[in-house]
Amino acid sequence: MRRTRFAESGTRVAHRYNIYIDEAGDDGLTKFKQPRQQGGASHWLTIGACIVSAENDSKMVAWRDEIRAGLSPQKAQKRSIHFQDMNHNQRRFACQVLAGKHIGIIAALSNKRTLQDLPSDRFDVFKRKNQLYSYVTRYVLERASTICKRQAVRQGHDNCTARIVFSRRGGMQYDEFREYMTLIKEGREVISSRGVIDWDVIDPERIEAQDHGSRAGLQIADVVTSAIHLAVEPDGFGNYETSYADALRKRVLRGPDGIALDFGVVPMPKLSKSPLSAEQRAFFESWTKK
Question: pTM value?
Fold first, then answer.
């Protein structure tokens, strides 16, 4: 089974892993974007995580700067990078750079149109501010905690704790997200999940938010999240771009069975229950190969 290496052995630290989280798309549930029309909500909300060992975290500035060096002189002068500001070739270059780094990638992709088919009481839950964002993030943290524990055990470390850093989003109260995590830990959440968070890894008190430009890790999380999002989110002409995600394949994490689908790339709802175009379905099915 092929495994993705994202951590290296080293001295004991307060937290062994950093999990940087960003989003692509939005959590609007009505008035979806239409081809050749301006405005509207995205069809998908993607929450992505870039996981790196604490020992390698200091290298992320150099990794970010390696991407900056490939941008136009004007963009390279800026300290931070943002995927949406890059052209097609620069995006592919950014993903190719990251494909050679010691990171792990997880992305959960919510097909928001399917939420409208839920019973009204359940749909009303997701209409609440930040509820969908939090719920999709939960799927990411379930898998991130699994891989961090698995990696720590493989390397013989007792410490498997992770620091979680969100890219700050407007209107999001991170104290509320920490409370949401506590509800899950205590089994009191409104809508449950099939997965389980490993609480040896995830501590609600280690959750924080920082501005996009303040951490290279958040900028890298922006790249990988947007790259995978654009494989299923139609552009203004109804087309999809899979080349960015394809460039990152060896960094996308796999479950114990060696398959990335439902672990490193998580469609919500499950693939069998999601109405998809032929291109979208082919993209997700490509992650079933070991």
Answer: 0.93
